[in-house]
Structures are given as C-alpha cells and as structure tokens.
Amino acid sequence: MTTDSVTAAQEADPRARVHAVRHRYAHRGDRATVHDWAYTGYLTAILALVYVVPVVHLVRTSRALVPLDSSRAAAPVACLVAAVVVWGAQLTGRFWGPLVLKPFLLHVFSSTDLSPTHYLGPIARRRLAYAGLGSLSAVCTAAFLVTDLFDDPGATLLPQGVAVAAGIAAVTPMAWLWGQIRTVRDNVLLAAAVAAAAAALALLGRSALLGGGGLWLIAGVAAATAAVLGRAAFRSLRTVDLARLARESARAAEAQTFAWTGTLHHALDLYRPQPRGLTSALVRPDGRLRGHLTQGAVRALRTPGRAFAAAGFLLTGGALLAFGVAEPGAGAATPSWVAGSLAVYWGSGWVGETWRALRDELTRAPLHGERWGGTLARTLAWPVVAVTATVGLAGGVAAVTRWPPRADALLLAAGSVVLVLGARFLREMKTDLPIALLLPVITPLGDLSGLRVFVWQFDGLVVVLIGVLGMAHMPSAPGAALLALGVTAWCLWAGLRRTGRTPRALLTRLGRV
Which residues form a coiled coil (predicted)? Predict the structure, then answer.
C-alpha cells in the first residue's frame, strides 16, 4: 500500500477526521496557558483551606444529620437521593447537556458530511465518564459528611453504600444525556418512572422480604437503568436537532464568558425563560394598567415553570422554618431553620420578574424617567406579598402540629423572612463586578482577592447564612428580630448603592411625588 493510499484511508476514516479537527482546535493560540491553570488551582486550594476544611471539620465533629443504623433505614434515603439526582441531571441536561460544544467547533463539524454520531459520540462518552466520576465523588462525600455510614464499626453497611453510590454514579450521566437529546414528553415519562421505581424500592427495602439486601437491589436497579438509558440515548444521537444544539452552544459560550469575567448573575439571566402569553391580562378593558399585585401575579404566570418552582420552594421553606424555629437549640441554628431560609431565598427570586424590572428601572433612569417615587411600590409589592403569604400559609399549616405556637418562634420566623427578602434585594440589585474587588489582598496565606470575588458572587446566600447563624446565637427572640431588621436595612442601603442611588435621594424623590 502506498503512502497516498494510506493518507486517503485516514482522511476517509470519520474517527481520524474528527480527531484531526479536535487536535487542531485544541492547539489554537487563545487556549488557556499554564499560568491560567496554575492560578485556578491556587484559588481552588485557598477556597478549600478557608471554607471547605473548616466546614468538613465542623460536620464531622458533630452528630450525623441522617443516622443510618440498618439497611432498612438506609433504603428509603438511598431511593430518595437517587431520584433527586436523576431529576437534577435531567433538568441540567435541558439547559446545559454533555453535547454542548464551542460554537465554532460545532459549526465545523455540522458543515461536513459526517453523521452527528461520529463527532458527538466520542465527546459524549468522554464527558459522561467524567460526570460519572464526579457523581461518585459527590455522593460518597455527601454520605461521609451527612450520614454515619463510614462510622459503622462492623462495616456492614459500607459495601452496600458504596454499591449504591456506584449505581447512582452510573445512572446520573445517562439521565444527563437523556435530558438533553430527548423530548419533554420523554423526560416527563422518565421522571414519573423514576418516582414510581423509587417509591416501590423504598417500600420493598423497608419490608422484611429482602432481609438486609435492600441496598444491593437498589444498586442493581440503578445499574440496569443506566444501561438501558445509555443504549437508548446513544441511539438517538443521529437524530439530534443540530439547530437547537447550536443555540444551546452559543448561549453556553456567552454564559461561560460572563462567569469567567466575574458576572455570574448575568450568566444565569441568560437561562431565564422568556415570558409568554397573557399579555392582554396586564391591561384593563378601559386601557388602564391593572394594580401592582395583579401585574406581578400575571407576570409570574407568564413563566409557569419558574412560578411552579417558586411555589414549591416557598411552601417547603415555610414548613421547614416552622419546624426549625420551634426548637432552635441552645446557641445554634437547626438544619431545618437554615434549609428553610435558603429555600425561601431561592423561591423569592423565582416568584416573579419584578426584581429584575426594579434593577433596570433604577439603573436606567434616563430611559424610564427621573420621577421614580412609585417604582419600589410597583415592583416590590408582588414579591413581598407573595413570599409572605405563601410562607405564612405553609408555616401555619406546619405549626398546627405544635399548637399553640410560641411567640418567640413566630418572631424568629418573621425575622427570617424579612432577612431573606433583604438578601434577595441585595442580590438582585447587583450589576457589574466592581473593579476594586480585583485589587490584590496580600496576607500570610497569599493573595485573597479571589475570595472577595467569590463572596460577591454569592452575597445573598452569605447574608442569609450569617444572618440566621447570628439570630440563633442571640439570647432572646426580640434581639434576633432586631438583628434581622438591622441586616435587612444594610442590604437595602447596599442594594441602592449598587444601582447608583442613595437612601437620601430616595427620600428626596418620594417627597417630590
């Protein structure tokens, strides 16, 4: 065989052609340098030392949050974890799946005569392998921190727990791929099937039919599900919608650019669903706009997915708050209290689009006008009322089990809700990353400027956690409520400062209206 024939055979091989394109793209001039990777590793090490290590030490030296004393007790927990992880992987795949490529690279591949299976298959296999290893590490780490599985003196549950973690790590990447390439109907069917299977396995694991082998059955079912899903998903690669994949890749590239430049909230804004329908419901028959609450409710219903998720988080958060503040413990916040506050925080941001409208109106005064005295009332009326009413309803239903509720518990719950709303206001008023945060902060541990950027990215969550922990350490409920009001006032002041406004200017404008 001559050299020309060998070269022609290599060029005709789809695998060689794909490898050549990826090799050339990987060695382009604007790729990340060794110094970039070194700085990323340095920041990761600093974050681990400052945040991760103390949290791990605190968790491991305290009582396990989810004690697992037998296989029967661990089976429902394993089923719940597996179902939640699979649902999360499906949902993640709908927005950012394993087939998302760089727009230019995808354009090059889609412009050839190659089938999508040839250039998407190898990339999907490699990314799914990485996702499986990451899922296994995450599940094992969560079990190490939250449960007492690794503290079992007889080591009877440890092999079964590792097997369940391996099964979850096998099915999670396949659900991730399934969520991206299959239709919404197929994803709903898979989610319903996972829920039914998890409920059946939980009941079977709690029964005496399997003895102590319930976890082995769960691991086997997860592995079999991964094999079935993987085969069906990879067979669907040849029918993938390349136009939709191109849009997803372009949005992912833009979001990645925002995230690397320190504006993670702008990256998340790209994945907000576009409002649809109910446009005429914002206006009365006589042509006038409807009231503030009606407008907020209609705008929330124009994004039904976000509204449904917000209702779930707010109801769950209200119930957890009711149970968490009832017995807060001596000088410490209960996990229910913290989890309830975080759930209310996430739900308060998804309850409507008026938070972003408020930020736009405050930062674009020449566009929306200078007389903004009614802006706060118009934009904040709906989220405040919706969050307060929903959390109060869920908390009231949950408090029936502890009737009559104590006055200090009600005060702590109200203070937590006010604190969460203040933290949400602070987060939503965020604009671009301040340049001052990029200045070096020289300490014995090195440059900690990256930590300031990290805290700025997640300032709302930081405020909620610090505020709840501070309220738990207050000697009385009125003192905790005053602390919550003080933190909320600071959040309002800092949020207005971010938009270029000041409380004095606000009062001046209100006096002129």
Answer: none
CB within 8 A of 500, min separation 6: which ones? Answer: 362, 363
Residue whose pair of structure tokens reads 């990485």 in the numeric block: 130
Residue 57 CA to chain centroid, in angstroms?
A: 25
pLDDT of 513: 43
List Cβ neighbours of 333 (8 Å cut-off, separation of 6 or more).
324, 468, 469, 471, 472
Question: What are phi and psi for residue 442, nearest 5 degrees?
Answer: -85, 125
| Residue 447 three-state SS | strand
Q: 395: which residues sit within 8 A by CB, 6+ positions away?
A: 318, 319, 321, 322, 413
pTM confidence score: 0.76
Sorted by sequence, the CB contacts under 8 Å of residue 204 that are 6+ apart come out as 75, 210, 214, 217
**Per-residue pLDDT reduced to its tens digit, 178-233:** 999 888 898 999 999 999 998 888 888 777 666 667 788 888 889 999 999 989 88
Of 190, 176, 166, 208, whose CA–CA distance to 78 is shortest?
166
> If pLDDT is split at 50, 70 and 90, which confidence band does 358 have?
confident
Q: Is there a contact between 499 and 431 (Cβ–Cβ < 8 Å)? A: yes
Q: Residue 158, by phi and psi: left (phi above 0), alpha (psi -120 to 50) or beta?
A: alpha
Tens-place pLDDT, residues 414-424: 889 999 999 99
Nearest partner of 18 among 125, 118, 121, 126, judged by Cα: 118
Q: In DSSP terms, which residues pair with 447 in a beta bridge?
A: 442
